[in-house]
Design goal:
Layout lengths: L13 E6 L10 E2 L2 E2 H11 L3 E2 L6 H7 L2 E6 L7 H14 L2 E7 L5 E4 L2 E5 L6 E9 L1 H6 L8 H9 L4 E5 L10 H11 L7
Parallel strand pairs: 1-4, 1-5, 6-10
Antiparallel strand pairs: 2-3, 5-9, 6-9, 7-8
Length: about 190
């Protein structure tokens, strides 16, 4: 039996970084009585991914020859099993795997400073968490790719294979205290006793 609670599989070794910079104080807000950033780190550990401090030099991560999971602290309730699935897909296909959620907001075109027609949301996706980099991509990057998942994906798309995977509703990204309350209601219980 695996030591990881997500299921019976043994995940290949992978390293994980919880991204919290540029997000203000929100990563330290509470959900189910725990900080969002702590819940995100626990999800990595529960998925069998070894959490690593963002301050570790990128060159050190490159020498380990493992996948690197970039996990947004604002997606604190991403299920461990989903993270593990993304890691396995990334390794199996040697591709950057990007979790996405459907866009539900109304999106308008802006032309010449004027708000125009509504964009059809059918083909729009919003990056969620995680973004998994296979070892080949980790080795190819000159430095830490940054904290903005959308910018990371846009940059990587130029030179690497990208696969998108629809994230479950629990993996949604929160941007306010109101959205944290909604996510807390959706997930219904504390992520982990301490």
């Amino acid at each position: 039996m695996s030591e990881h609670p997500y299921d019976e599989r043994e995940l290949p070794p992978a390293l994980g970084l919880v991204l919290d910079e540029g997000r203000g104080a929100l990563p330290y807000a509470l959900i189910h009585g725990e900080a969002l950033v702590a819940c995100a780190a626990w999800a990595l550990g529960d998925a069998g991914v070894t959490p690593v401090d963002v301050g570790v030099p990128w060159s050190s991560l490159q020498t380990v020859d493992e996948a690197v999971v970039l996990h947004d602290a604002l997606c604190p309730m991403t299920p461990a099993a989903f993270i593990a699935d993304c890691v396995e897909r990334s390794l199996a296909h040697d591709a950057v795997v990007v979790a996405v959620r459907p866009v539900t907001d109304t999106v308008k075109r802006v032309e010449g400073g004027l708000v125009g027609e509504t964009v059809d949301r059918e083909g729009l996706l919003a990056p969620s968490s995680p973004v998994v980099l296979p070892p080949s991509v980790v080795r190819a990057l000159d430095d830490f790719p940054g904290h903005d998942l959308a910018a990371i994906v846009a940059r990587l798309r130029e030179h690497h294979v990208i696969e998108t995977v629809e994230a479950p509703p629990e993996a949604r990204r929160v941007t306010s205290a109101e959205e944290i309350a909604l996510l807390e209601a959706l997930t219904g219980e504390a992520p982990r006793p301490f």
